[in-house]
Design brief:
globular; 4-stranded antiparallel beta sheet; alpha+beta; single chain
Amino acid sequence: MDLKVHINNIHGSQMAAKITGKFSIDENTFRFTAIAFGRIGGQNVGAKLSKETEAELKKLGYDVEEVILNLQTQLLQGNLTLPEGLKKESFVDD
């Protein structure tokens, strides 16, 4: 699955942040929200899709759980694009 992630906005700190953005699979683009937690136990990200997005993914033949896991993995690994002016260093520990 070739999933690409683009972050629109991040609110919060290195401890916890709310992320909004879009991801694309093939020619389809969808919105998501996520909460990222750091510190004790390492990084963790919980992504959430709307019911409409989940229904559209199912209609297109995608496994929703697999998409969410892939999205979370991309977020954790930093495989994403950011809006101009936002740097990974502002919300990711090195």
